[in-house]
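User: Could you write out the 3D structure of this protein bound to magnesium ion? I've included everything you need below.
Assistant: Certainly. Input first, then the structure.
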Amino acid sequence: MTFRPRRSVLYMPGANARALEKARTLDADALILDLEDSVAPASKGEARSLVAAAVKAGGYGRREVAIRINGLDTPWGVEDLKMAADASPHAILVPKVAEAGDIVTASRIHMAMGGAEATRMWAMIETPMAIFNARDIASAHQAARLSCLVLGTNDLLKETRATAAGGRLAILPFLSMTVLAARAHGLDVIDGVYNDFRDEQGFRAECEQGRILGMDGKTLIHPGQIGVCNELFSPAPEEVAWSHRIIKAFKLPENEKKGVITIDGKMVERLHLAMAERVAAIADVIAG
Ligand code: COA
Ligand code: MG
């Protein structure tokens, strides 16, 4: 199993040189160097140059590095994509993907610009149309070299005029639809950001909710959010211990031919064995 942890995915404004530097020392699994929403129109060119230099200079170690470009229908998107094709990050995050064609087009232009085959596309799911088309978007994963769907919950709230109150009650169906679409095609899915970055309790609760929904991790806006996020999106120690018990139990000679067994009064089937093996493998990767 090749597993890449994407528990903590930290955004930073591409125009913020200090943040681009500091990210080399932070414990995030992935970084999104942003050219879009967090960069003012007057700073787009400067941010593009700073991000290009940072990615080429490297020093990000095991962290997965993604560049978020501006939409290809904006004055900056094509130049951003050209820079990303040249700088060769692990991934390019395309904003406001509305239909499968948007991400396939971005991928093809990237290749035509001489971009590396190994660079993956990530798609922002952040508009009502993207929720309706999540299934189609995810199904284009081969043509688009797509590996990850990223929820843009601030834009979803803006576009739907819903609020985040009541534990994100209004947008829960959108989050779940995106998880389903991703899983139907073997993609990862990362939850949206929590804006109130000094509120650790609220952040914790939202991470836990994301895990319950099946998210692989959460996008973050501040280094102070990384620790809690890594903890909550790692398999809990009890879960790892339970997984090892399942693996051990199915290895016993008396269980070799059994499809279902009982451990501590609970029914455990071979599908749980597959889940346990995944948890154990993830825990190994994270520990390593
Ligand atoms: N990435 C990397 N480093 C960051 C960071 C980020 N997203 N946010 C803050 N830092 C650094 C600061 O540079 C500072 O480092 P230093 O003290 O070693 O110089 C340290 O973390 C503490 O920062 P702090 O003073 O608490 O925050 P701030 O007031 O400077 O910035 C924000 C607050 C919200 C403006 C800033 O965190 C930010 O820009 N976040 C990302 C926004 C974004 O990318 N949005 C787009 C997607 S929603
Ligand atoms: Mg957005």
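Strands lie at 8-13, 30-34, 64-68, 91-94, 120-125, 146-151, 188-191, 217-220, 260-263, 266-269.
User: Perfect, thank you.
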